[in-house]
Amino acid sequence: MNKQHIQNLLVNQAKVPQDMVVGAIEIPESTMGDFSFPVFKLAKIYKKSPNIIAQEISSNIDDVEIARVQAINGYVNFYLDRDKFVGNVLRSFDLSQKTFGNGHTICIDYSSINIAKPMHIGHLSSTAIGGSLYQMYKYLGYNVVGINYLGDWGTQFGKLIYAYLTWGNRQDILDRGIEGLLELYVKFHDCAEQDKSIEDSAREWFLKIEQGDIQALELFEWFKEITLKEVAKVYDMLDISFDSYKGESFFNDKIQPIVKELMDKGLLVESDGAKVVQLQDDMPPALILRRDGASLYVTRDLAAAKYRKETYNFSKCLYVVAYQQNLHFKQVFGVLDKMGYEWAKDCLHIPFGMVSLKNGDTLSSRKGKVVFLEKILKDAIQKALVTIEQKNPNLKDKDSVAKMVGIGAVVFGALSTDRIKDIVFDIDKALQFEGETGPYLQYTHARCCSILSKCGQDTLSPYSTDETIKCRGVDTDTFELVKLISRLDETIIVACNRYEPSLLARLLLDIAQAFNKFYITNHILSAETDVYSFRLQIVKLTQQVLKLGMSLLLLKSPIEM
Ligand code: ARG
Known about the structure:
Blueprint: H1 3-12, H2 18-21, E1 35-38, H3 40-46, H4 50-59, E2 66-72, E3 75-80, H5 82-92, E4 105-109, H6 121-139, E5 143-147, H7 156-167, H8 170-176, H9 178-194, H10 197-211, H11 214-238, H12 255-264, E6 268-271, E7 274-277, E8 286-289, H13 297-312, E9 316-320, H14 326-338, E10 347-350, E11 355-357, H15 373-391, H16 398-415, E12 423-425, H17 427-430, H18 438-454, H19 476-485, H20 488-497, H21 502-521, H22 529-552
Parallel strand pairs: 4-5, 4-9, 9-10, 11-12
Antiparallel strand pairs: 1-3, 2-3, 6-7, 7-8
Helix pairs in contact: 5-19, 6-16, 7-9, 7-10, 8-9, 10-11, 13-14, 15-16, 18-21, 18-22, 19-21, 19-22, 20-21, 21-22
Bound molecules: arginine.
């Protein structure tokens, strides 16, 4: 029994119009039932008192899993038959991949790093939110295309080549990778403050890349290779991969056709020597070509969006990018719309807030003050190891558990608050085994595993065939836990609809808390055989749901920690 079922009962048995129920079912405080349906809107339409409508509806509902339907103060409250409900969940809970996607494709542009720049904590949110949406959509049965739209174009590459040829050293870059490149970049900006002319030299080098000069291209490709090798380490740690790495430079030869199309459609106008597209309202015009004829970030995104539609025929194309780029995406989608592409409405910016480190510096690669994500992850792993040494010194394979816990703590930190909120990341807090953290989920999961293995029951038969489950007189703690578990799929659906993995994070925290409460009041080892087996089934289901849910949030589930 879930919201969907209640909805069906209201439509089929009480003949409430479909559009009046969709999204209207509430989950009330537990004394008011397990589900509740407010009838005020209906009362207005039918010009009857809410209480009468509620009475009429409640007298028409009949279902084995519902013990009682109550009409009160304009609400229809549904009370579940606890025993039947819990029994049914245990017997029929389905953890397999769903088929809601129905052949639809979702493109997700996320992480989208910049070449020769470090991956810092600011990239964490995009990577974690995008990666999690990817997994959730996949679970719901969509085709998903993960795109790392590399920032591999722009004048900064001219600056870097100039800096490398002036001050750089091949061996040093080979040894220190992005850190060395970053240093060159910073040095360039320092010097440019004294001597503006080096900006011109940088522009010349960029022009050479554009014109295919061999030396320029070789260096450019080399910088790219170094960056990709280094970020691969982070993606490995996070266990994330992408279906496409087509970035800005890939679209170079697709810029001219876009410009021509804009011209043919009469959208391109001259402004101060540059070419722009005017947009509605008070939005500033979108800059398409600079005075010198160079294309811009917007131009390349237009080409990329069109390419994605042609290549993947997406139902939605999501751009998981910080809210600082709100205007950029409004402009891109606005231009696509003016070009007459009805699918412009399917391109969506999924913004998120700023992440800063507690005691951390502001993040600016120009000044070189940036904390590398790899370092943050490694520190977290190190700290997790210290905790594990204290709590469980005999644990086998401590290093690999510390890796799962440390990385899990960081990733969960990025996923557990509303994505739009700015967050100050406190690694010590995120690593605690108690509280609203990733390690708390992992710890609860490991606890389930340890109970199951102690009881020698980690291979309990599947619920659907297990008719021995006895659940008579289900207590409140068990009931509340199972109710939360039963919300898994609907929560994932809402999380995808709102592009908000934190909703799933919240549910898992609630499940973990409910489980720990259940575990205190429902003794297992000392229970009689049939109750014992029933409680163990609950533990098993909790373990499976936590494991699945965590995997959708990019968290690993160690069996011991
Ligand atoms: N590389 C960009 C940055 O770090 C993000 C790219 C986002 N995706 C896009 N299609 N514009 O700011």
